[in-house]
Amino acid sequence: MSKTASRWIPLEASPETFSSWASAAGLVTASADFYDVYGLDPELLMMVPKPVKAVVFLFPINETTEAKRGEEDEQIKAGDQTETDPTVLFIKQTIPNACGTIGLLHAITNSDITIAPESPLAKFIEQAIPLTPERRADLLANTELFASIHASTARAGQSNVPDNLDTDLHFCAFVQALRPSDKELRLIELDGRRAGPLDRGPSKDLLADVAKVVREYYIKGSDSLNFNLIALASPDSEE
Fold first, then answer.
1. What is the DSSP letter of 3?
2. In this structure, what are the phi and psi dihedrals at residue 83, rounded to the nearest 5 degrees?
3. 122 by DSSP, 3-state: which?
4. What strand order describes the sheet that includes 185-190?
5. Closest of 101, 133, 108 to residue 122, by C-alpha
6. 2 and 137 in contact (C-beta within 8 Å)?
7. What pTM did the predictor assign?
8. For 139, left (φ over 0), alpha (ψ -120 to 50), or beta?
9. Could you tell me the pLDDT band of residue 126, with boundaries at 50, 70 and 90?
10. Alpha helices in 89-221 (DSSP H)
């Protein structure tokens, strides 16, 4: 395994950090950028520029979320969930603390946005498409430039890099994808710790649908305040 697979510094959950990472990796930020989601109430969701292309979600890992993940992973492995779009690019996480980069990759690579030709992102997508999720993890671990982008962005986002890099916070991403059988638009949760993409049901309004999932599956019954939603949006594009 590459030396890049050692433990990475956790990314800060902020639009500025995500935009810096994405710009360095090859996202054309004039076409899409990251924005804070200030809350889950409808009036706060309306403040986010539209259209929203993807959402990156930071949440605390605890016994409840781990138990739910275990149950849902068994459903994915057994094929008990509805079919998901096979073109969705899913990456397994094998690098500790790389969930920020993997969440950003999941959000950007599965969205209809502009990526600079010959950029690290463009090259990664081209190489990753024919691979399995596990081989995509290897590709990420052995792409020195992504480790460098992650490290520089993480250090810029923190006044002091902690000596203890253990964290109970984790990133995942939400995107929309068409179900192959009937072309219904579905909400897909992408988390490199899971067994595969997780179908969260029909989706007409990406941000509103994510808010419902976050309330029901993550915040309900939790006393933690360590939740953060950041939207990837193209405010100048047409719906």
1. G
2. -60, 145
3. helix
4. 33-37, 228-233, 52-60, 169-178, 185-190, 198-202
5. 108
6. no
7. 0.91
8. alpha
9. very high
10. 99-109, 120-128, 133-141, 144-156, 206-213
The answer to whether residues 185 and 176 touch, using CB atoms and an 8 Å cutoff, is yes
170 labelled catalytic: yes
Q: Decide if 172 is catalytic.
A: no
Nearest CA among 22, 45, 26, 43 for reference residue 34: 22
* Element holding 23 (H helix, E strand): helix 15-25
Q: What is the pLDDT of residues 218-237, one digit of tens each?
A: 998 788 888 999 999 998 66
Task: State in Å, rounded, how far the first CA of the chain is from the last one.
Answer: 43
Q: Catalytic pick from 99, 106, 150, 172?
A: 99
Higher pLDDT, 30 or 165: 30
pLDDT on residue 5: 47
Lowest mean pLDDT across 2-11, 38-47, 210-219: 2-11
Residue entry with tokens 């990156």: 56
